[in-house]
Amino acid sequence: MTAKISTYLIELQNALIEEQLWSCETPTVTALSSLEPFAIDTLEIEQWLQFIFIPKMNALIQAGKPLPTQLHLSPIVQMSFANRNLVAPNTLAAVAVIDRKFVEKPFNA
């Protein structure tokens, strides 16, 4: 099952790149150290996906650690994009697939 989530993470990365939401510059250590959910006070949601979510999920997979049992990323991604009038259908679709797959069958099962 972890191979599937790795594929979904790659699809999310590709969507971010295709829609020009992938950043070449790493945020500051302070920005990445935010204690707020989704680092909402220091990062845009696409930065959180790129610099926190994708690496953390990949690290869990590589370490053989348990993955979250449920994810609900779509609402925050949709809201963030809507608030900025950002159109990124491929990224939204990739996030929705990840959410749906975790609800349908947790990857730790």
UniProtKB/TrEMBL annotation:
<dbReference type="InterPro" id="IPR023376">
    <property type="entry name" value="YqcC-like_dom"/>
</dbReference>
<feature type="domain" description="YqcC-like">
    <location>
        <begin position="5"/>
        <end position="99"/>
    </location>
</feature>
<dbReference type="InterPro" id="IPR007384">
    <property type="entry name" value="UCP006257"/>
</dbReference>
<protein>
    <submittedName>
        <fullName>YqcC family protein</fullName>
    </submittedName>
</protein>
<dbReference type="Pfam" id="PF04287">
    <property type="entry name" value="DUF446"/>
</dbReference>
<dbReference type="InterPro" id="IPR036814">
    <property type="entry name" value="YqcC-like_sf"/>
</dbReference>
